[in-house]
Amino acid sequence: MGDGCKHTCAAPQVQARPYATLYEAFVKIDLHVHSKERSVCGRASEEEQIRAAIDSGLDAIVFTDHHRLISSERLQQLNEKYAPFRIFGGVEITADGEDVLILGVQDPALESVSWSYPALHAFVRARGGFIALAHPFRWHPNVTAEFERFAPDAIEVRSIHTPPGAEGRIRDIAARLGIPVLCNSDAHNTTPLGMYFNALERPPADEQDLVALLRSGQFSCSSPG
Ligand SMILES: [Zn+2]
Ligand SMILES: [Zn+2]
Predict the structure, then answer these.
(1) Residues with a beta carbon under 5 angstroms from ion ligand 2
(2) pLDDT at 21
């Protein structure tokens, strides 16, 4: 950690698809995608989201619906149907006024709506999962949860819901905590698919390997913003 270059989002003023082709050798993954099957605010079905991601040049997405995990059976079905495209299952939890993305933990106890951030952090840590702070400064002028004391594994620097004016503060937090930044869509419909992604150097073997790859910080992230 501490190598700012690895964690810097390039920001070319170009369309999503041509830019994605610059990353042809990488595995391009959006870690924050919603579906209408599990998010009441979702406007696109999970298969519409997958097809839009494929059409826009992504290699993988993670479904992170609000307080709802996708079942392992459905994940397996979708992965078989859309291979070699990859679909992973995470969740987005609101805790102490902030939204947090969790990867690598499939325990239904996660789906509670009454987590405190410190308790959620301990729960996920104990199970080897990955915690990312989603769109900081979207809801409040300050980060409300105890993120400095209970550091996440990553922080979302760009998404459709991350205020552009907050980027400097987000990068400062990431640098202070020594964690990478992420570029994810937070797509609730198909439009933003492909515009935000994290470029991994190799395909993850499975969800635990994805967590390990992300935790290593050996990736860059990109967005059009
Ligand atoms: Zn959110
Ligand atoms: Zn979200």
Answers:
(1) 92, 186
(2) 59
Under CATH, which architecture does the 4-222 domain have?
Alpha-Beta Barrel (3.20)
Q: Residue 112 to residues 60, 68, 77, 108, 150: CA-CA distances in angstroms?
A: 27, 9, 26, 8, 20
C-alpha 119 to ligand 2 mean position (Å): 20
User: Residue 141: what pLDDT?
Assistant: 85
Report CA(34)–ligand 2 centroid distance (Å).
6
CA of 64 to the centre of ligand 1 (A): 9
Integer Cα distance of 106 and 161 in angstroms: 25
Point out the residues of the chain with pLDDT beneath 70: 1-22, 225
Q: How far is the CA of 79 from the centre of ligand 2 (A)?
A: 22
Q: Where are the domains of the chain?
A: 4-222
Residue 29 Cα, ligand 1 centroid: separation in angstroms? 18
The single residue listed with the structure tokens 């106890």 is 109
Q: How confident is the model at residue 5, as a pLDDT?
A: 32
pLDDT confidence of residue 194: 94
Contact yes or no for 95/115 (Cβ under 8 A): yes
State the pLDDT at residue 25.
77
What is the pLDDT at residue 225? 58
